[in-house]
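From: lab user (bench 3)
To: helpdesk
Subject: output format question, protein + calcium ion

Hello, I'm new to running complex predictions and I'm not sure whether the block I got back is the full result or only part of it. Here's what I submitted:
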Amino acid sequence: MESTRILLTLTGAVAASASVSCSNDKNAAKEPQKPLNVVYIMCDDHSYQTISAYDRRFMETPNIDRLAAEGARFTNSFVANSLSGPSRACMLTGKHSHKNGFTNNEHGIFDGSQQTLPKLLRAGGYQTAMVGKWHLVSEPTGFDYWDILTGQGDYYNPVFIRNGETLVREGYSTDITTDVGLEWLDGRDKDKPFCLFLHYKAPHRSWMPDLQDLGAFDGVSFPLPETFYDDYATREAAALQEMSILADMNVIYDLKMADREGEIHTPENPSLEEYGRSLYRQDLEPGVLVPGRMNAAQQAAWDAYYDPIIGSFKEAKLLGKELYEWKYQRYMKDYCSVIRSVDRNIGRVYEYLAQNGLLDNTVVIYTSDQGFFMGEHGYFDKRYMYEESFRTPLLVRMPGQAKARDIDLFVQNIDYAPTILEMAGLPIPDDIQGDSFLPLLKGERPKGWRKSLYYHFYEYPAEHSVRRHYGVRTERYSLMHFYYDIDEWELFDLEKDPAQLHNLYGTPGTEKLTRKLKAELERLQKQYDDTIALQLPLRGPEE
Ligand code: SGN
Ligand code: CA
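Helpdesk reply: Thanks, we reran it on our side. This is the complete output you should expect:
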């Protein structure tokens, strides 16, 4: 195992306690389970489009694919609220955002005194560890060991907080997160089952690859998504955003075209690029090692790769469509290069489990905190209930189950907690809103399994300006209501219009369907007790 160098140590303190109450509504007719270990791996913003087990257009991910080949691939896996903190809170609690209280990144502080998956596991005899991106603001509770990135985390030389103590580790975030996770596994009590939460910062913006992966996609021309030139006709809420590759992706901060002579080609938006320059400097300022920034050797290798690209970019003076497509290609190159490191590290985790005889009694789960737009509709980022961000990859390698299986029933990230509890042979508390998908992993298709999904996104006014919305998705249709400072409904027939370009809401002939879907939406809001959605004012307070 690679070793981790600790450069700086500060102090802090933490107290974690668990209070557990369980009853049995969700526990009928359960066979007693032999406790399985769990390695729960979650990336940040990893699109299913860039996992070759799901989509072969862009890149190969052999190590992630192996989990699908030796386990199950969920083809209808979704989140409840497509944003990091909220998604993590859904996973930890098995509850929708309005119930766990963490509705958005900007104002959220996770209430760590509530019931959570790690607390329930720990009370049930498990050792629990949380390593990597946490993003819930309050200190983690319910873990025997936690070693988290601060905030969003940095790609290079990141700052961690380890059980309350702050330290900087030199190296690349994805490698270090694996190092720390495997070191914890090495030192664990081998007589107890474990659950390790391994949460990578990658591939979150601004997609900074490991040095060894720079240039991995040079010469590759990525295919443009069919909706790249979407004009948002019929969808006002789709037009109202600030996550367009053309208009909002930053040439300096996102695409690393930093010009050290103080000039940059900024045809579209000079003030945006100036802002990008200041952010980028925080990541790249050369010199002595500063937490979260590159050291001199890293900087030199980085510049050796990017400088010629910056030179050509400045000369080319691209505009309009050419600039747009150039931005898309650079974005894809950086993003996919970051995924190479993720895939390599999944290989390391797999090898560790194999070498330590753990593959036969450990479930490996691979997922992301949400999906991500890879240029569809001209976007980067997530947030919308549109398919690319509403969906999230989910691969589960569970010992003793059939290999290379697809599971097409609807699952959502509120299901992870009850599933892991059932895998651990522990009862599922009644107030958990998700359902265990362990029966699905065993090849069953339980009667009464959900046929519709509920979604609610709250972070507005905020970065990227995606309006608040909630909605329902059935096998064929997706209905969403955008609210707060707009009042717009969108309805899509996913069978006829999988790319979601034609809003059918209000068009003749859809009245009955709309009534049916609205009734289903209301049924879900009642089932999940989303009174926030039921009592909405359309217009928010003046801000
Ligand atoms: C940061 C990013 C956003 C991103 C949010 C939320 N901006 O604020 O682009 O949408 O995180 O992402 S940045 O300028 O700081 O890079 S999340 O995955 O953590 O929810
Ligand atoms: Ca995320």
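A quick orientation on your result: The two ends are 51 Å apart (CA to CA). Let us know if anything else is unclear.
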